[in-house]
Amino acid sequence: MFHRTRTLLPFLALLVFPLATLAQDRAGACFFSADFEDGVIPTGWDVGPLVEMEDAAGNGLDTFVTAWTVGNAAAANAGGFFPVPGVPIGNQFAMANDDAPPCNCDMADLALTTSPIDLSGRNGVALECRVFHEQALGGGPASVEVSFGGGSWITMATVPVLAGGWQHLFVNLSAFDGQPDLRIRFRWSDGGNWATGFAVDDICLRERTASDLSLVNTYTHDISADPFTTGDQGLYYSMVPLSQAGPMTVSAELMNRGMNTLQGITVEATISLNGTVAGPFTSDAWPELLPGARALVTIPTGWVADAIGLVEVEFTASSAVTDDDPSDNSGNATMRISGPGWEDGYGAMAADAGQYEGEVGGAQAFIATNRFELRESGVAPTGISAFLSGVSQVGEPVRAILFDGNLAFVDTSSRHFLTEEDVIQAGMGEAIFLPLSNTSALPAGDYFAGLQHLDVGFGGQVRVSTSGTGPIGRALLMEGITFDLTYLLATPMVRLHFNDYGVGLEPVDESLNVNGIHVFPVPMGDQGRIRFELEQASRVTLYVLDMTGRSVWERDLGRVFVGYHEEMLEVSHLSAGTYVVRLTVGGDHHHIPVIVTR
């Protein structure tokens, strides 16, 4: 019917809360619920009549399909114009989708209707759910309606319009307490246009008491922080190096699940690290919270971690009136202060949740990155680690890459070709580590650390695992030779390290006149070896450089003839750490990071 284009709006304020630890959300209190995770519309629900498919001019094709389906974010946006956020990753929901195949369809008046619900003996019933309603591309309104005893439909709520994000919907149904036959329907219209769609998820009917404050989500960071604000240090991290730990601001999401307005609401947070307790720290009072409303409360604690370990934050919410159900007034959140060694994460700065949920990448050239905010200047990163999906293929070239907050190049690692061991480790959920080439100290500010797949005609797959979600601006995917930018909700499992990694890869670098440079073993003990091939006779010199660029060992090989060569690298006199092997061939220099252990 219409030719459509859509502009990417990366600065949309999405209702996405990254990597929180859930408080008690009282899911068990739902006496009627539907989350669609089994992939189907529940038995007994009414999806309405089939809808007719149309051609681009709006002419009916005499082919009829169901209007309501269940799918995930990828299925919703299969046509490219219905970008329902996948929060949490892989989440399934019910949708009327006028964009993805097989529709373009006539969706002028649709309704998804529940099976009959018995409210006999129920008190203070309310509906809670999530909806996605952009009303984009000429789409019409959406509403929630009810009917009881087979009577006419009553509009209970008009769904607000919100571009780009899920929103929580609360509908007071207490007027129908005791009704034995209540039906709820979600009604949407495409406005007579080829619109996007409407989605609904996490439907829950609860009984309410008079006063019920609920702590829904808890966070170890400032939930209101904007990723695009350089240096505000507010984004969530699951791991932060001790050198980057600063004054901690924590947050909590509250909801009034009672029937009365709540006043004088506060949240207390107590922080513990290695048995040492700080606090409690108390938020400013939230003056008033209406029934069904939510609030985000932040607490600038001023507390700074002074040791490596697990930070645990305990939250308690209260109001000026007695809570009829205090069981859902507490919650907790955790993060790790990282440092040297395997158990301490090798000084990792990590934004992911630590467990595979999805993946990004493919056969094309791409860079999957996360934004990291360095609080303190003068600290040098050593490299990045990345968790790859097991479908990544042997022989594919990758490297670590580091940008500043404006995506200007800062540093990279040597090119590495994935080995069979890498792929096996990926399938086992283990990371690979790529040392950066020039690990000089960085000033405070925002940086993007990522894994790059170098598309050099190999045609194989490289996929980076994702875990957890974050706000738009937190994670970035750059694709193709033009580096087309896409802001991700899913967080790539790519971490920035500030301590030497205990294991490493065998780095490989290539140039026009030096092919297949291998430095081994990785890591090195007292001695290492370098193997290289010359395509023409040249003068060759070997150096080992420390992280300041100072030569700590060198050997002049003189004029070396064409062919394969293997030489010794003496590192027994060096302390443990990251170094750079420089191979100078004529006027060309080739740098390969190495790790020395003791």
Write the layout of secondary structure elements.
Elements: E1 21-22, E2 32-34, E3 51-54, E4 60-65, E5 68-71, H1 73-76, E6 93-97, E7 110-113, E8 126-132, E9 142-148, E10 154-158, E11 167-172, E12 182-188, E13 197-206, E14 213-219, E15 239-241, E16 249-256, E17 262-273, E18 276-282, E19 286-289, E20 294-300, E21 309-318, E22 330-338, E23 348-349, E24 358-362, E25 366-374, E26 383-386, E27 397-404, E28 409-412, E29 416-417, H2 420-427, E30 432-435, E31 445-453, E32 462-469, E33 475-479, E34 484-488, E35 490-492, E36 494-497, E37 508-509, E38 514-520, E39 527-534, E40 538-545, E41 551-560, E42 563-570, E43 577-585, E44 588-596
Parallel strand pairs: 15-22
Antiparallel strand pairs: 1-14, 2-13, 3-4, 5-6, 6-13, 7-12, 8-11, 8-13, 9-10, 9-12, 14-16, 16-20, 17-18, 17-19, 17-21, 21-22, 23-36, 24-32, 25-31, 25-33, 26-30, 26-36, 27-28, 27-29, 27-31, 32-35, 33-34, 37-38, 38-39, 39-42, 40-41, 40-43, 43-44
Describe the 3D structure.
With 598 residues, the protein is mainly β. The protein has two helices and 44 strands. The strands form ten sheets. Strands 25, 27, 28, 29, 31, 33 and 34 form a seven-stranded antiparallel sheet that branches. Strands 2, 5, 6, 8, 11 and 13 form a six-stranded antiparallel sheet that branches. The chain is globular and about 95 Å long. The model is unreliable at 1-28 and 503-515 (pLDDT under 50).
